[in-house]
# Entry
Amino acid sequence: MRTALVTIILGRPYQLAWREVCESTWRAHAERHGYDVIAIDMPLDTSMRAAMRPPYWQKLLVLRPDIAGGYDRIVWIDADIIINPAAPAVTDGVPVEMIGLTDESRFPSPQEYREVQLRLAHGHERLGDLGRSAFARASANMLPIPQTGVMVLSPAHHREILEEVYHTKEHDILVSEQVYAGRAILQHELAHWIDQRFNALVFFLRDIEHQRAALDTEPKLIAAMRKWISHYYFLHFAAVQDLLSLAPQALHQ
# Structure
């Protein structure tokens, strides 16, 4: 099947970060597995409504024919991801009618995920006691959370579903594109859970590692990142994009 890795890099900071840190790892992965790489640096929607929402909402539009035409599979990858050179093909084993993605609530494990969420809840004083209690209960009884930073998609099967989410849902600081898209994927029973290593969230890894040995210096962070890169396939810097600047040292030492 003809496949492309697709991302959106809107704004100079995102373009520089992707091109200077991430792109070479994507190109190596794509060459190894016969994929193309498409980095979109112009908005797919120029409406006022689009301008009022974060750019990542526009990932839901990448199955349009002007982008995905001619491809059987589109692998959406957030632009703040670096790829392990030894990573296997993310598309392997994903039925074409299904959406391949990871379950965030099980990363790195269900127990560790709950522990991180509880620490996060206790760190948010603005939630108050009732808010923290609700947060704790929710994290202790977590339903699957489709993590949309990496998605194996089929233009023929999934364009309508993703675009419906884009056009009918509104952004809220507490309800993002991931929440709405994840709900739609689950409701349509489209989730095909792939290896967690294809979407390793540095935010969680750093928190867990910090509990074991304080990551309080740059060399310690680089050493930790080197370990993560060797163990995981796709290392995702969501919410900690500032750490991307250390990735070249972790990759090349």
In short: The chain is about 45% helix and 15% strand. Residues 3-110+145-252 form a domain with the Spore Coat Polysaccharide Biosynthesis Protein SpsA; Chain A fold (CATH 3.90.550.10).
